[in-house]
Specification:
The structure holds two protein chains of two kinds. By secondary structure, chain A is mostly helical. Chain A is built from twelve helices and no strands. Chain A has one domain (about 1-320). Chain B contains 16 helices and eight strands. Chain B is globular, with a radius of gyration of 22 Å. The chains are: A mainly alpha, B mainly alpha.
């Protein structure tokens, strides 16, 4: 009972903070994109345009809610809610500070991967239920992409798990704060594993150069083509939440989570998360989009063999290097 | 997936054949691509027959932007037509005026002063740079999406294009639909100090072209998306009447500026940019190279710009003054950023101050005719790349 109350309280706080952070993150991304494109970005709503995301959401909520005539109504309505729930759900086991964690599961890593893998369901449900050819193509691409990139994602996640000898996210962070960050040492499985994880994260959260399920220059808006108003807003938020939580997991797995000098743990965790989040958007506003088959080629021919090799290296490091598996 | 259809498409299927006849059991999907679609460059429509994500048949449809410009010209006097055709190729409006007025001048037997010819050439080359900049921006937008790296290059390309529009504004007062060419020459002389502004703008653009190349033709994702995509052979291009950068990218060294010089091109050295692959990447490379080439031509043109009158014909106050013998006809073609833009005029309409018939041959229409041949076998993503690489302007296609 005590654990349940603890989980509920922390869960509510973390969910609220995350949703507020999404608003901030959207503003931050738009400012970043503006600077990269020799524009100013939002300036008019609130100080330096800070309230622009709020205004956007309010505008979207006023839009007419349209359900296509031949859509599968139930699935069509459930999909966006499910998308937000799945994205938020993964945040439950992310350790923001030594004791700031909603549910400190022993198998936290497994939980994150399982919940993250569920993301494909609302995406495909939306594509299928819309009864639109563009949405269907988007949904089809999303399934292929998520299922494929799940493999390098899991394998890259295994590297810190093997090195730290635990599947608890807070345990992995604690190990790193006692010894060293996995992105820094051991360099060979650690750093490439982070890059594989980062690429797989871009693919899992449908970010350029891997945003083919949305691909608005090809598929109009992919799976979200038929969505309007509040339901579109939910998809929009889910996308940012997914990226944000993914960045937090990456920070915990490879960059020591809350570990850092002088400042409290929460500062370091949020700082690292935002830095990774910013790099996702830096990539997004710099690169073009891959084609679906090139995406699969990259996944199965490059990233998957590479990540298998990295897992073997990590195992060898723990087994044979003196003091490797402390 | 239908094996029969896929292998037939890979072997080069006749675009007039229905793929369903090869395999009646095949599960094909008809996708209406456009006219309301983010990447159809206006109101172009393709009906794509898909097998999975592979296009097995592509049927282009045009006509959504038809404005009956040619018919309208028959009702206007010669001097009134110029501002109407500005809206045809709305990415390079000045080339429309140039092609039209050159045809009228030949029909009426009017000599254009040397200074006016040089000015027209300088304008045309500036227009080419502006047009290719816009193409580069929209093409990367097609490849990279409106919410990604494509927009970044798009914004930067538009920033440079603005500087060229500013130059045109200095000359004609308008940023886009200039109405500055007239029968016998130009309406506006270039203002004092204009050539320094041009040189400054060109220096900025020239210094930034390597940056655009780094984000486009030299970028590995861009190359992966465009290499060996939409290969157009030189023979097919000639057969379909494709001209301009699309033809030169297929290895045919043809450029009206050198082969049938007009304006000041007979006194300038024109070096056409040619590539041999015929794919989307080759078309992109040719256009980027042409920007450099045009910068050189503008500089040469400014250096050699002669003094003198800018119009060889008394400005027409009374439109009834212009009369042409009935039945006389001319065809004049120029090399626009998109290829051969021709104007065919038959004189002596009713009233005799208007053309009897005016026909515009637009390069974009011919470029679009390649789609049924080069698109099958590629994916929906490639359809966007191929369409963008042909650089069609719908205002010119439909007129």
């Amino acid at each position: 009972m005590n654990a349940l109350a603890h989980g509920a309280a922390y869960g509510a706080v973390i969910a609220t903070v995350l949703l507020a952070m999404v608003a901030l993150a959207i503003w931050f991304e738009r400012k970043l994109a503006g600077r990269m494109q020799s524009r100013l970005g939002p300036t008019m709503v609130g100080p330096v345009g800070l309230l622009q995301p709020i205004a956007d959401v309010l505008k979207l909520l006023q839009k007419e809610d349209i359900v296509p005539a031949d859509a599968d109504r139930g699935l069509f309505n459930v999909a966006p809610v499910l998308a937000v729930l799945v994205s938020l759900g993964a945040a439950a086991v992310v350790p923001f500070a030594p004791s700031t964690i909603a549910a400190d599961l022993d198998v936290g890593v497994l939980y994150v991967l399982a919940i993250g893998g569920l993301m494909v369901i609302p995406t495909f449900a939306a594509g299928w239920a819309s009864n639109n050819k563009f949405a269907l193509l988007g949904g089809m691409r999303a399934v292929a992409q998520s299922v494929s990139y799940g493999v390098p994602l899991v394998l890259a996640t295994l590297v810190p798990v093997i090195l730290a000898g635990t599947m608890s996210l807070s345990g992995i962070v604690a190990w790193q704060s006692q010894h060293h960050w996995f992105a820094v040492w051991p360099v060979l499985p650690g750093l490439p594993a982070f890059f594989v994880f980062f690429l797989a994260l871009l693919a899992e959260s449908n970010r350029i150069p891997f945003d083919i399920p949305e691909a608005e220059s090809e598929l109009v808006a992919g799976v979200t083509t038929e969505y309007t108003g509040a339901k579109f807003t939910l998809f929009y938020m889910a996308e940012y939440l997914h990226t944000l939580v993914g960045s937090a997991v990456a920070a915990a797995l490879f960059f020591g989570g809350w570990d850092g000098p002088f400042a409290p743990g929460l500062f370091w965790m949020v700082g690292k998360t935002l830095a990774l989040f910013a790099s996702v958007y830096w990539v997004r506003w710099s690169l073009l989009r891959f084609r679906a088959d090139q995406l699969m080629e990259l996944c199965w021919k490059r990233l998957t063999p590479l990540s298998v090799a990295l897992v073997l290296l990590a195992a060898a490091w723990v087994q044979f290097v003196p003091g490797g598996g402390k | 997936m239908s094996v029969q259809i896929q292998s037939a498409v890979r072997a080069g299927i006749d675009p007039h054949l229905s793929p369903r006849s090869l395999d009646p059991e095949a599960d094909l999907m008809l996708l209406h691509f456009g006219p309301q679609h983010p990447s159809t460059h206006g109101v172009f429509r393709m009906d794509l027959l898909l097998d999975g994500e592979i296009v097995v048949k592509a049927t282009p449809y045009v006509g959504y932007l038809h404005r009956a410009v040619e018919k309208l010209c028959e009702k206007l006097t010669y001097a009134q037509v110029t501002p109407i055709v500005d809206k045809n190729d709305y990415v390079a409006p000045m080339t429309n005026e140039q092609a039209l007025n050159m045809a009228f001048e030949r029909l009426l037997g009017i000599e254009v002063p040397r200074r006016a010819r040089w000015m027209r050439t300088i304008f045309a080359e500036l227009q080419r740079i502006a047009s290719h900049l816009l193409w580069l921006g929209t093409f990367t937008l097609d490849l990279g999406g409106a919410l990604g790296g494509g927009t970044t290059l798009f914004m930067h390309a538009f920033r440079e294009r603005e500087s060229i529009l500013d130059l045109f504004e200095d000359v004609s007062g308008a940023r886009f639909h200039y109405n500055t060419h007239t029968i016998g020459g130009n309406r506006h002389d270039i203002p004092a100090g204009w050539d320094d502004k041009v040189k400054a703008a060109l220096a900025v653009i020239e210094a930034r072209i390597p940056e655009y190349e780094a984000m486009s033709v030299a970028n590995s994702i861009f190359v992966a998306r465009t290499r060996r995509i939409g290969v157009l052979s030189g023979e097919l291009a000639l057969e379909l009447g494709i001209t301009g950068p699309n033809l030169r990218a297929s290895g045919v060294d043809h450029d009206l500026r050198r082969d049938a010089p007009y304006g000041a091109y007979d006194e300038l050295t024109v070096r056409p940019c040619v590539a041999s692959e015929g794919d989307c990447l080759a078309r992109a490379r040719v256009r980027v190279d042409e920007m450099r080439e045009s910068i050189r031509l503008v500089r040469d043109g400014l250096a050699g710009l002669p003094e003198g009158p800018i119009c060889g014909y008394k400005p027409v106050r009374q439109p009834t003054q212009v009369k042409v013998t009935a039945g006389s006809q001319v065809y004049v073609a120029i090399e626009t950023p998109r290829g051969e833009l021709g104007t065919f005029v038959v004189g002596g309409g009713e009233p005799p101050t208007s053309p009897h018939r005016l026909k515009i041959r637009s390069p974009s229409l011919h470029a679009l005719s390649a789609i049924p041949y080069i698109l099958p076998g590629h994916t929906v993503s490639d359809a966007v790349a191929i369409l963008g690489s042909l650089d069609p302007i719908m205002g010119e296609v439909d007129r």
